[in-house]
Amino acid sequence: MKSILSKLWLGITSLVLFILIIIWIFQVGFLNKFYVSERTNNLLKEGNEIVSIITKSKNPQIVSEETMSRINSTISSFNAQVIIIDSSNNVLFFNAPHNVPKRNTETIPERLLSKINIEIEKGETFIKKNTRLNDSFYFITVGIPIKENGNMNGYFILNSPLAPIKETTSILKNQLSIITLASIIIATFLSLLLAKLFTNPILKITKTSKQIANGDFTARVKLESKDEIRDLGDTINNMAVQLGQIENFRREFIANTSHELKTPISLIRAYSELIMDVDGEDKQARNEHLQVIIDESKRLNTMVEDILYLSEMEAGYYKPEFKNFSVIDTINSVIKKLSFLCSGKNININIIAANENTLISGDEAKMYQVFFNLINNAINYSHENGNIIIKVNNINDMVRIEVIDNGKGIPKEDLPYVWDRFYKVDKSHKRNNSSTGLGMAIIKNILEAHKFNYGIESELNKGTMIWIEI
Fold first, then answer.
1. Nearest C-alpha neighbor of 161 from the set 143, 142, 137
2. pTM score
3. Domain that includes residue 62, residue range
4. What is the rounded CA–CA span in Å between residue 253 and residue 310?
């Protein structure tokens, strides 16, 4: 398999060679045709302009000063031979090109006219390329009829010698050979340099990606350039950070889950062993042990359900089903279900609502769970004989719900983490009978799935307020 370095080098070098081949084809192969075509077009254009001047003169049979001036300019520009003949083929004007040998120049008009006699008889514009008048020179001959009111008054003939193209082509070949050799050497060096500059960052990215794939999430791509490859490197670095965070979460999740599951399992095992040791007549002790086993089994089952439920939401499988429902009725239903916890700690819950018929749009079952977890937490972290206030305010098109307790509160440094799984504000990790450590994470995922705003405010030993804006 060819490396990207060799592919880039071959690609750039091949491109330079292709361009050089095109130059050779046009500069050497088509040089003669191009030169003859350009000279022909220029002579034809010049001849038509002079014929126009002759036609406009008072006496076309006499070469005027204006015509002579333009003819001299043409002769100078094209080293051309100009012949003007009348309708009877009498030569009215003639000159010989400067680079034609002097010998027999006086016979050139007769020799030329004899070669183009058929074309002259047709009375039309004609072009003859490579007309040979002697052993050394070839000419381009352009003939333009001089007509006035449809009557033929004569012919204007331009005869221009062709420069020796073979010598020019030979010189051009030598020059192009040197340019080609130099271009290939320079192109090879520059393409290799550019290929290295381009591939080195890619090799760094590849090396770092392999390190990340092998579990080294501290690996980073360090690039100095400011281009798309730098953006790719930054993306790889960001991916490493994200994967590192996921790996840390995975380890913490396993550790926390193991810790949370270990205790109920240990209690179930311990009390099961105690039941075996209890005498058959001591029913009270046996019932107490069995109740502990039942409670811990329920707790274990709730934790597993919460873990599965949270995993489903974070994987993106959960989509809320929106419908309108009464928020006050839902909160009252939650309070009724948690009334036994309130009575145990003598906690009073008050609902303050501007409108008892306030409706919100959302997934009613999931929002029930949100309110259940919020109020349950408020009860758990409230002191005995405490108060919990639930405010429901209508603000324009928004409903703001606040759950306020006057309990233990949360330290300021812990507030950003209360939404994390298994996060413990109480660093002693004392267990609460009804807590799985996943309630706030579930609340967060449900609210974010609904695209509802939420937040928390708290002060240590004064209480906590959690708000939701719908």
1. 137
2. 0.47
3. 4-167
4. 12
